[in-house]
Amino acid sequence: DTAVSQTPKYLVTQMGNDKSIKCEQNLGHDTMYWYKQDSKKFLKIMFSYNNKELIINETVPNRFSPKSPDKAHLNLHINSLELGDSAVYFCASSQVEHEQYFGPGTRLTVT
Amino acid sequence: RKEVEQDPGPFNVPEGATVAFNCTYSNSASQSFFWYRQDCRKEPKLLMSVYSSGNEDGRFTAQLNRASQYISLLIRDSKLSDSATYLCVVNSGQTGANNLFFGTGTRLTVIP
Predict the structure, then answer these.
(1) What percent of chain A has pLDDT above 90?
(2) Mutate to test the interface with B, among A35, A43, A102 (most CBs of B within 10 A)
(3) Which B positions 31-50 lie with beta carbon below 8 A of chain A?
(4) What is the distance between the alpha carbons of residues B31 and B51, in angstroms, rounded to a whole number?
(5) Are A3 and A100 contacting, i.e. CB atoms less than 8 angstroms apart?
(6) CB B46 within 8 A of CB A98
């Protein structure tokens, strides 16, 4: 009974491709997030959704588009992938102002 | 200035040792503070929340000093299984949001 799940776990693709990462949580949380952890292990928030509404949109390229069909799902679509997009992407969820629970991560490699 | 600053380490300590990590944060409006643990190639997991009065969970003690904007984590009687990266985490302080800022982490290796 996984709390926060992501698919795929690994994603290897070429520059210029479009790809999606899916995230689902079964914790009943209202808020979901996407984080990027780069090669230096720095974890930085990209997006936050509260009840299907975007409430934080950090300065990420508009090639990245989050989509939330319902409050249990937050998917991340990336257009025209670049080498610099290679990183580990973590999905997380929480009740607002409480601790966040992370998914296992998606390791994206762009070649 | 980064929202959260930590000494990246590495800290290499023998089993049984006591080790302390510190971090500072820049946003005085922050209301929630946490220590997360991240094992190699795994996701961050909550270790403990940090309360103004300080709190303890077994061998782990967390302290918060709002005046100095400083958070600490003390680990007593280190175990091999404590080897991980410890992330200091602070929220943005925005009402209705839960934007968390992570430090770069402090790497701990406990040596047999």
Answers:
(1) 65
(2) A43
(3) 31-32, 34, 42-46, 49
(4) 10
(5) no
(6) no
Please state, in angstroms and rounded to a whole number, the distance separating the CA atoms of residues A41 and B44: 11
pLDDT band at A98 (very low <50, low <70, confident <90, very high): confident
DSSP string, chain B: --SEEE----EEEETT--EEEEEEES-TT---EEEEEE-TTS-EEEEEE--TT-EEETTEEEEEETTTTEEEEEE-S--GGG-EEEEEEEE---TT---EEE---EEEEEE-
Q: Does B98 touch chain A (CB under 8 A)?
A: yes
CB atoms within 10 A of CB B36: 24
Model confidence pLDDT, tens digit, residues A14-37: 999 999 999 999 999 988 999 999
Site of tokens 């319902």: A70
Q: Is the predicted pLDDT of residue B80 greater than 90, yes or no?
A: yes
